[in-house]
Design a protein that fits this description.
Blueprint lengths: L7 H18 L3 H14 L4 H15 L4 H21 L2 H14 L7 H10 L3 H14 L4 H13 L3 H14 L4 H16 L10 H17 L7 H13 L3 H14 L4 H13 L3 H14 L4 H14 L2 H14 L4 H14 L2 H14 L4 H13 L3 H14 L4 H14 L2 H14 L4 H28 L4 H28 L4 H14 L2 H9 L8 H14 L3 H13 L7 H16 L3 H12 L8 H7 L3
Helix pairs in contact: 1-2, 1-3, 2-3, 2-16, 2-18, 3-5, 4-5, 5-6, 6-7, 7-8, 8-9, 9-10, 11-13, 12-13, 13-14, 14-15, 15-16, 16-17, 17-18, 18-19, 19-20, 20-21, 21-22, 22-23, 23-24, 24-25, 25-26, 26-27, 26-28, 27-28, 28-29, 28-30, 29-30, 30-31, 31-32
Length: 611
């Protein structure tokens, strides 16, 4: 038995609902509709899945031709009437809900949908539909009576009285309803208490086992299959599910190969949230008739709910094998293989989606992302290009292509992509920063080329000048990139530290000090910021202030002589030497010497003090 603690909503959220939301965001409405139909086959009472299905259908048809919508609406209405005659209530609901998602609500049909919700035990949905009917046609007598009865049964006596009163305004001579109105008013005055149905799931299970025991006692020869099936259908219409189960069980005892009985049992077990039993019955159905596509789909959904991904995959693979290739099934298989961590098989199934539906632009992103995860950049770029052919003005996609080109080192292609994205989305500051990053990489490449040439011709003065200019250009670009990053993330103090170092390298000491001082109160950056401030003061010839900041940097450390501490001690030693304080300088150098004799020229400085 699957745990009752796991709610239908949680499972749908994990496997169907969230994927449907994503599919709608991707404008892949057919896939979203398929996902939501699967979730409703597992839990017909899920209101949010049903509501989202209506949204998906609306979005699918909102851009279509009005004539097409009208024709589709007529077809759906006729299908709804047809399934009503067959008493296939789930199909009726499906058709009418589909109808109202693409055409305006119609008062004559809405009460029919409300009645079917009522048959299925979906009371809140029924009330909602009846209330919508009254918005469209406030004097609909049938609906007023229905709401009066339902609201009274739910203990909402005051609301029931209001609807009853509206009915009597239109038909004041209806004696029966008039009497009901008086009874309702009396109930409000007396304020009767309500009986509560206290039957638990355990009690339901006991009743079910009792019915099964009764079936076992009957001999096969005494069971009339036709009568049992008819009785079961009647019980289903009356929402007497336990009784219906008992009748269907009798059928399966007398006729184990009766597919209809096994399938009906599966549907009833789903309604009662007996998912293991539902799986058992549906497995019997597909064993008897392997081409029951709807049952295979439902079974796969049940296995997903159970967490048995392997069995779910097996069912979807059978659907692919037995029936024509379908985009939603391949898409679901891809999702399931991805959940199992089998990226190769996931890609294979997603590629089938792309092959069957080349206009399905979002699938190329999914495949591209998976290739990117596997560090297969050329293949990822290929998939994104396919999507871009369908969405040439998608700035997010174009920027992503630029990122991949940059990662691959194709700077020209990267800049072209970023420039195109910037034209479409000029307010996107990150793209401007990325364009500067490309220019920086280009300058790096030029520098490497010049430095390689200089090795073979070390006396070439013109080449040396070019290298110096390139270094200067690179530094300015790095400053520009860093400034852009700070604009995007003004609270990131590490960027201020980085910018300060660039200004310091460029000789812009005052600008560097501003950036370093902005980092002093950040505990993780404090020591480095104080050290950098001290170094700037040293360059400016303010040695006393330099010593003050460097000593503060020393105090901000951990007490261990690590790399940063050695740099601070060495700098303090140099400044002390410049001040003519040889003894103090040696005290700093010795602290380094004690832990790292190989640090710079500290050994020479310390040892010379003993000569």
């Amino acid at each position: 038995m699957i745990k009752d603690g796991v709610t239908t909503e949680a499972v749908i959220g994990l496997w169907f609902y969230d994927r449907a939301v994503k599919a709608i965001d991707e404008r892949n409405y057919d896939y979203a509709i398929n996902l939501l139909q699967l979730s409703l086959s597992i839990d017909p009472g899920s209101s949010r899945a049903r509501s989202l299905l209506i949204v998906a259908r609306k979005k699918k048809f909102q851009t279509s031709n009005p004539l097409r919508r009208q024709i589709k609406g007529i077809v759906l209405m006729l299908q709804g009437f047809f399934f009503e005659k067959l008493k296939k209530w789930d199909r009726v609901i499906e058709k009418y809900e589909y109808l109202f998602s693409i055409v305006p609500l119609q008062a004559p049909i809405l009460p029919r949908l409300g009645d079917i919700y009522l048959r299925k035990g979906m009371i809140d949905k029924a009330i909602g539909v009846y209330q919508m009917t009254l918005i469209l046609q406030q004097d609909n007598l049938y609906t007023l009576l229905r709401l009066t009865k339902l609201l009274h049964e739910q203990g909402k006596t005051k609301e029931a009285v209001q609807h009853c009163k509206k009915y009597l305004k239109v038909k004041p001579n209806d004696f029966t309803v008039g009497q009901e109105f008086k009874n309702l008013e009396a109930l409000i005055v007396i304020d009767k208490g309500k009986w509560e149905d206290k039957s638990s799931l355990v009690e339901g299970a006991i009743r079910r086992q009792s019915e099964e025991a009764k079936v076992a006692k009957e001999t096969v020869s005494k069971i009339d299959v036709g009568s049992c099936l008819q009785a079961a259908e009647t019980f289903v219409d009356q929402n007497r599910w336990d009784d219906a189960i008992s009748e269907y069980k009798k059928v399966t005892v007398a006729a184990p190969d009766n597919i209809a009985a096994h399938q009906a049992l599966g549907e009833l077990y789903i309604r009662g949230r007996w998912f293991e039993e539902a799986i058992e019955e549906y497995e019997k159905v597909v064993a008897l008739d392997p081409k029951k596509k709807a049952v295979l789909n439902t079974l796969a959904g049940l296995y997903v709910r159970k967490g048995d991904i392997t069995c779910a995959i097996e069912k979807y693979e059978k659907i692919i094998l037995l029936f024509s290739k379908e985009v939603p099934t391949y898409r679901l298989l891809g999702d399931l293989y991805l959940k199992k961590g089998n990226i190769k098989k996931a890609i294979e199934n997603y590629q089938q989606v792309a092959e069957l539906d080349p206009q399905h632009s979002a699938i190329y992103t999914i495949i591209g992302d998976l290739y990117l995860k596997q560090e297969e950049l050329p293949k990822a770029i290929g998939e994104y290009k396919k999507q871009m052919a369908l969405e040439p003005a998608n700035p997010i996609l174009i920027e992503r292509l630029g990122d991949l080109y940059l990662k691959k080192g194709e700077l020209g292609q990267a800049k072209e992509s970023y420039s195109k994205a910037a034209q479409i989305e000029p307010a996107n500051k990150s793209i401007a920063g990325k364009i500067k990053e490309v220019e920086l990489r280009k300058t790096d490449a030029i520098l490497k080329h010049y430095e390689l040439l200089l090795k073979s011709n070390p006396k070439n003065e013109e080449l040396k000048k070019k290298i110096a200019r390139a270094h200067q250009d690179k530094l300015k670009m790095r400053v520009g990139v860093c400034v852009e990053k700070i604009k995007e993330n003004p609270g990131d103090t590490s960027l201020h530290l980085e910018l300060g170092k660039l200004y310091q390298e460029e000789g812009m000491l005052d600008e560097a000090l501003v950036e370093f001082q902005a980092c002093v109160n950040e505990s993780s950056l404090r020591q480095m910021a104080l050290y950098s401030i001290g170094a700037c003061f040293e360059k400016k010839g303010m040695l006393d202030m330099a010593i003050n900041r460097l000593e503060a940097a020393l105090a901000a450390g951990t007490g261990l002589v690590d790399g940063q501490t050695k740099d601070i001690l060495y700098k303090l030693g140099n400044i002390s030497e410049a001040n003519g304080d040889r003894e103090r300088a040696l005290s700093f150098y010795k602290k380094i010497y004690e832990t790292d004799i190989a640090y710079r020229d500290v050994a020479k400085k310390v040892e010379s003090g003993y000569l």
